Amino acid sequence: MSLPAEDLAPAPLSVVLREGTRAAHGEANSEQFVEELLSGALDRAAYADLSAQLLVVYEALEAASAALAGDDRATSLVFEELTRVPAIERDLAYLYGPGWRAEIRILPATRAYADHVREVGSSLPHYAAHSYTRYLGDLSGGQIVKRMMKQHYGLGEEGVAFYTFPDIPKVKVFKDAYRAALDGLGLDETEVATTLDEVHLAFRLNRAVFGELAAIHCGNAQAV
Ligand code: HEM
């Protein structure tokens, strides 16, 4: 008996990434810094420090988006409404005050993450991996983070602009469209494998940043 053709078709990229990184996701969100930040055990300074790290990562990611916007295949994955740098800058101005640029401290793991994104960001599978890891995460767990930051650290809408997407009225609809864009990139088998590997790397790079943040902000953390 032969299998129906759809059973032989390769899984769509969005499914490969979601299924292939479930364990990595679990590890990332059980990082000490993440757990303590979300449970209210830390303080606004820890949240502000995280926001500062995000600035540098998104500057690199969104420089890659701008460079790829004219690329035939990549352009479907570049969404204006995801742009986060201006929102992070507003959060930092609120959290640190008007002199925020001189106040923020960028950690070595953050530099390494941003440098890596700048290095590989012009390759479509690599760009797709970094875009997926950050933006779909922000639209998913990020919404939980936003609620918890407001609840635990007395923030109003000001200070959590990063987690607010004013041009995305229905997150679920947008996430479906984003996944469809991923699936429509037309990546071949090798490129899909490259993308999955790169998402794993992106999770590790995020965890390294959380590790350095934990060393600074978590009471019983080991020194870096
Ligand atoms: C802060 C703790 C976190 C929580 C509570 C959390 C929670 C979630 C939840 C509930 C979803 C599923 C949403 C849905 O079904 O549509 C999700 C998806 C996702 N998260 Fe997280 N997450 C966290 C941290 C992270 C981190 C650190 C990253 C990576 C930097 C990340 C990346 C992702 C990605 C890429 C998805 C999309 C999975 C997919 O549907 O393909 N998350 N997260």
Describe the model.
The mean pLDDT is 94. The longest helix has 29 residues. This protein has a single domain, classed as Heme Oxygenase, Chain A. It is globular. The chain is built from 12 helices and no strands. Helix 5 packs antiparallel against helix 6, helix 8 packs antiparallel against helix 12 and helix 9 crosses helix 12. By secondary structure, it is mostly helical. Helices cover 68% and strands 0% of the residues. The site of protoporphyrin IX containing FE (HEM) has 18 residues, from helix 2, helix 3, helix 4, helix 9 and helix 10. GO terms for molecular function: heme binding; heme oxygenase (decyclizing) activity; metal ion binding. Pfam families: Heme_oxygenase.
Sheet-strand content, in percent, reads under 5%
CATH architecture: Up-down Bundle
Please state the average pLDDT score.
94
Note the gap between the termini. Answer: 59 Å
What small molecules does this complex bind? protoporphyrin IX containing FE
Number of helices: 12
CATH topology: Heme Oxygenase, Chain A
Summarize the helix and strand pattern as letters: HHHHHHHHHHHH
- CATH H-level homologous superfamily name: Heme oxygenase-like
Q: Biggest β-sheet: count, sense, barrel?
A: none
Helix content: 55-70%
Rg of Cα set = 18 Å
